[in-house]
Amino acid sequence: MDKKSLSERDICTKFITPAVEKSGWNRLTQLLEEVSFTDGKIYVRGKLTARGNQKRADYILYYKPNIPIAIIEAKDNKHSVRAGIQQALDYAQILDIPCVFSSNGDGFLFHDRTATDGNIETEIGIDDFPTPEQLWEKYKKYKGITTPTAEKIASQDYYFDGTNRKPRYYQQIAVNRTVEAIANGQNRIILVMATGTGKTYTAFQIIHRLWKSGAKKRILFLADRNALIDQTRRGDFKHFKDKMTVVKHRQIDKSYEIYLALYQGLSGTDEDANVYKQFSPDFFDLIVIDECHRGSAKEDSSWREILSYFKNATHIGLTATPKETKETSNTEYFGDPVYTYSLKQGIDDGFLAPYRVVRIGLNVDAEGWRPDQGKTDKDGNEVEDRVYNRKDFDRSLVIEERTELVAKKLTEFLKGYDRFAKTIVFCVDIDHAERMRTALAKQNADLVAENYKYVMQITGDNDEGKRELDNFINPEEKYPVIATTSELMTTGVDAQTCKVIVLDANINSMTKFKQIIGRGTRINEEYGKLYFTILDFRNATDLFADKDFDGDPIRVKPVSQDEDLSLVVLEEEENTVTVLDEATGEEIVFEKAKIRYPDGSSLDGNWVARDPDARREKIYVNGVDVSVLVSREMYFDQHGKPITTSLKDHTKEIIKENFASLDDFLNKWNTTDRKEAIIAELQEQGVMVEALYDAVNKEVDLFDLICHVAFDQPPLTRQERANNVKKRNYFTKYGDQAKKVLEALLDKYADEGITNIESIEVLRVNPFDEFGSPLEIINEFGSKEKYLQAVKELEIELYKVA
Q: Which of 1, 153, 620, 701 can pair with 378 through a Cys bridge, CB separation 3.0 to 4.6 Å?
């Protein structure tokens, strides 16, 4: 047998797989081949989407299901035994795997990430592959697992529900690292995972493994919203069955093992309301805190009060947005994250939906609004003469025409996109959400007449709206379509099919911004949800450019600081002060009190927090000229950062990194069999083809688009290129029927572009079906090879440089 003539797959089948099996690896449970561990990044092309390449390992070896301990990258025998090691190391780092192998069928190169004696890489014979127990010992060393008790916990089986569902690679890492950290004695742990990446499923697997191993016998899962508790109970945690209970009505039953509870349901301002004290301090072995950024970062919060009481238990915090400010710190309490899986990683891997951003700038927002002399509000009171700006609108001053224009622009967008695309409109407060619902109902009167639930206000004070929240997030329910909200839907809302996020609120908190963006990041392919659009009326998406938007949390709170103030003043007026509570991301208005008690005492002049459910005193005006100054789509590079240069300059930079000169590009273009491959390659590197077409000319070829943008060549339209070929009498060397086919291909190119004429499938559609079957057409050229050669020569003629 000539090994050099075998394909890579043949090398795997005939040499690598038998060698691994011979060492004791079970082919069904331990040895997985061609493992795709990402879904492939989603690229948005206008209204169309396409998946990029998946990351795929040739082999991943598991000690137990979901506990990967080795990776093998295979090459054909024309390569050396070392040829796959760098790719394997890249994958091993992503997958948190210590033992890395490369093979060409002759033997293995073993890269040992646990080596401390200098023998980090060694070549071993094809018959000397290590056994599962040998590599498990190296894995334990890599993870610091040194005792039999720790090993028992770390090797505990995952839960399998009888379906094909299994954790994604990053969930595996999060679960394994957490369980291993606890096995090694760590009692304060935080996991940072972007919204939509399955934190609850991850928490379930962690709890189940610790519970089944006997390491943790009684577990408390804490959340701060009923919706989160209900989703958890009905979802992944349902497998705990009768071992689980939800704490309700402050009633405690100590006969269960898994407890789900609202922290508000366990504690209160009144000592009698602190029902958690009905449990002994050592009752729970493990407490998992969902959305831990919302309170446990603060030392005097209700969360911390409960955690302090159960201080001997292991505490695991889950969050997409860890809280790190000068005043508040998650990492001060939990330590550095044992694992972080970011929004950018999720989008790059294809597990989270990418986003388009459309910025709509209104004249009054950009320029401010100053009332004319004597201008009165709707009650007839004269409006104070000053310049009002974006910070004022809908908080202290309401311009009716502004609300109406936002509703109109959103409606126009949906009419051009999909009028039944689930949409969340984030407003300044409840009053704004109420008015926005009315404005949107007016703009969409036809659909509201069909069903009044087409647009609904879903806010904390609106019982009818809150009852519709489940219907909004249920993919199978058509209504409501548009939800207007302020705070209620910023977190804990699993809106899988939300396709549009509208920002008409001033967002000053990075935590709150990330949570809002997270409402759109879930993918639901069954319902066509592969990306979402952000319509930004307040420049809130400036926060995408912040270095902290998608980075790891960096602790900035000084260790010695004892204060727990987390209020940042946003604006001061004579009788009110607006502050940002950085622990929750919420704005609070303090006002000078005017309160007198019957005994004659008074709070007059003291600062008190305004009741958040109370209506702010606002000025309402109309008759103001409000218009759109600019509407444009923001673009993001391949790293998810906003492009600050022009789209053309950004594209030119990418192309020139790949092609030093026009001749280099021409050579690549003419020698590549399918131009689609070049398009895909450029898109993976960040070239936004559809956006370029919009910016330059939709009638030009991608070839001309690139030559024009990168090399300053005057672009020709596809029709002009087709006409140039016809003028050269290029077809005279072919027979009449073949000539008609090539002319039709030329017309097809002029209408649709180069990629549509490169496939033989084009011969099945009009007008080619009039010339006969694909086989009959190909026979006019003599053979399939000669037909493909004719198409290739046609492409060369099309792209001749005059």
A: 620
Compute the distance between CA of residue 193 and CA of residue 172 in angstroms, rounded to an integer.
Answer: 12
How far, in Å, CA of 611 to CA of 223, rounded? 24
Q: Which of 346, 347, 291 is nearest to 320 (CA)?
A: 291
Burial of 756 (0-12, 13-18, 19+ CB in 10 A): middle
Q: CA angle, 397 as apex, 396 and 403 as ends, to 5°?
A: 120
Computed on alpha carbons and rounded to an integer, the radius of gyration of the chain in Å comes to 31
**Where do the H-state alpha helices sit in 557-700?**
647-658, 662-671, 675-684, 689-695
Q: Which two tokens stand for residue 136?
A: 């498990």
Profile the chain (802 residues) by mean pLDDT over runs of 10 residues.
Answer: 88 95 94 94 76 91 96 95 94 96 96 87 95 96 95 95 90 97 94 90 96 94 80 88 88 91 74 80 93 58 79 92 55 83 90 90 93 93 93 93 96 93 94 95 97 92 84 92 87 82 89 85 90 92 75 42 40 54 50 47 48 65 91 67 67 80 81 72 71 68 80 83 84 85 87 77 84 87 87 83 62
Please state whether beta strands 286-289 and 314-319 pair in parallel, antiparallel, or not at all (unpaired).
parallel
Q: Tell me the H-state helices in 223-281.
A: 226-234, 263-266
As beta bridge partners, residue 501 has: 424, 534
The reported pTM is 0.75
β-strands 107-112, 121-125 pairing: antiparallel
Query: How far from the centroid of its chain's Cα atoms is residue 185's Cα?
Result: 33
User: How many residues belong to the chain?
Assistant: 802
Token code pair at residue 240? 């705990």
Give me 415's structure tokens. Answer: 């009419």
Q: Is 713 exposed, middle or buried (0-12, 13-18, 19+ CB in 10 A)?
A: middle
- 366's enclosing H/E stretch is helix 363-367
Retrieve residue 538's tokens. Answer: 């307040």
